[in-house]
Amino acid sequence: MKASYYLPEEELVQKALKALVEALDPIETTRFLSLPHTRRQESVERHRQWQATLDQEKFLEQVFSPEDTGA
Q1: Taking the chain, what is the end-to-end CA distance rounded to the nearest angstrom?
Q2: Shortest CA distance to 30 belongs to which of 40, 42, 18, 21?
């Protein structure tokens, strides 16, 4: 079994950029790298937002209603 190791960051960046340029082209690579990064929403905040729009009665009915087996 071959031992695993991490590439040095400099080499990793060089290989990744080379792969992007080969797969896309320099313009599209630059465009891809310039795309805005969306901030990941914290899970508790996301859950609270979901709860705020939740119709509790409808939700509980969906969860606890017997499933339609199609029979």
Answers
A1: 53
A2: 21
pTM for the model? 0.46
Task: Give the 3-state secondary structure of 41-56.
Answer: CCHHHHHHHHHHCCCH
Longest CA–CA separation in the chain, Å: 62
Residues 6+ apart with CB under 8 A from 45: none
Based on its alpha-carbon atoms, the radius of gyration of the chain, rounded to whole angstroms, reads 24
Are 21 and 29 in contact, with CB atoms under 8 Å apart?
A: yes
Q: Which tokens hold the place of 17?
A: 């950029």
User: What is the per-residue pLDDT across 38-47, written as a single tens digit (0 to 9) for each?
Assistant: 777 788 888 9
